[in-house]
Design goal:
By secondary structure, this protein is mainly β. The chain is built from four helices and twelve strands. The chain has helices at residues 13-19, 96-104, 182-189, 196-200; strands spanning 5-7, 42-45, 50-57, 60-68, 86-88, 106-111, 113-118, 125-131, 137-147, 154-163, 176-177, 211-215. Strands 3, 4, 5, 6, 9, 10 and 11 form a seven-stranded mixed sheet that branches. The longest helix has 9 residues, at 96-104. It binds four DNA strands through residues 1-4, 46-49, 70, 72-75, 81-88, 91, 94-100, 115-117, 120-122, 124, 126, 159, 162, 173-175, 220-224.
DNA sequence: CCAGACGTTGTT
DNA sequence: GTCTGG
DNA sequence: CCAGACGTTGTT
DNA sequence: GTCTGG
């Protein structure tokens, strides 16, 4: 994981994350109009694009768009940094880019599924991975806020935590994104929790019995491609083994 | 002490 | 081959 | 993650 | 900002 994902049920965000899963002392909040790019479902969200996140802001959950690809708060203007779209779980507590966000910048990144590419480098095939029941879920995310040195403009950006794959995905890839169970979502978002061990304990491979994976066509390879057709199962492969 | 890094994935 | 852009 | 670029001078 | 390497 994970350089593409899907966010179809945009309209379910409020219900799923603000109402069904309330938190102590919190209340429902109107997220206001969503960014234009989320006025329609998205089937191919790529790094550097805006993603919708859920985080804690002024004592309540809030839905915010952020850039996918974390820019640390300490980055100098113009400094070249890696595209931080994934954060390895075993590096969260120590790596400079993650340590601060693990304490103060935890978020959820809602999605309906994601793509993983599998196979040899010159013949990689995209696979779509999702919940069997099709429900919205949330990746464990980290975010940071970067301040433009002159304009003062704030840029919020995020990364998806990765861990070892479950048994379903092990044949597909050697990493998988961290998907939180609903009880874990509230803990991950709770800003009062700063004990690193309590946070890392939430990070587990999502149970494979809830998930399903199937090959899709290579149209998703192009970042500009979008739409439900990307989720169509890949057509049967013709017999190529015999020359 | 200062200078420089600060990341991940995938690798026939 | 390696970096950048989306 | 994959696709696509990868560059400069001089300027109607 | 904070850690690591020298």
């Amino acid at each position: 994981m994970c350089g593409r994902f899907v966010l179809i049920q945009v309209g379910e965000l409020m219900v799923r994350f603000m109402v069904i899963a309330p938190y102590p002392g919190g209340h429902r909040q109107d997220p206001g109009p969503l960014p234009a790019m989320f006025s329609e479902p998205r089937y191919n969200i790529a790094p550097t694009q805006k993603v919708l996140t859920v985080n804690f802001q002024n004592g309540e959950r809030s839905i915010r768009p952020m850039r996918w690809g974390l820019i640390p708060s300490w980055a100098k203007n113009g400094q070249k940094l890696p595209l931080n779209i994934n954060a390895r779980d075993d590096r969260l507590a120590t790596a400079g880019s993650w340590r601060g966000p693990l304490r103060n910048g935890r978020c959820l990144i809602p999605a309906d599924g994601y793509y993983e590419w599998t196979g040899p480098k010159n013949n990689r095939k995209p696979v779509f991975i999702h919940r069997k029941d099709g429900r919205l879920f949330a990746f464990a995310g980290l975010y940071d806020t970067w301040r433009h040195p002159f304009s003062g403009e704030l840029t919020r950006s995020c990364a998806i935590v990765t861990t070892s794959p479950n048994s379903l995905l092990r044949p597909v890839h050697h990493r998988m994104p961290v998907i939180l169970e609903e009880e874990a979502e509230a803990v991950w978002l709770d800003p009062s929790i700063t004990h690193v061990g309590s946070l890392l304990a939430l990070i587990q491979p999502y149970p494979d019995e809830y998930m399903e994976a199937y090959p899709v066509g290579n149209a998703v390879n192009r970042v500009a491609a979008d739409g439900p057709a990307l989720l169509a199962p890949a057509p049967e492969q013709p017999f190529l083994t015999e020359k």
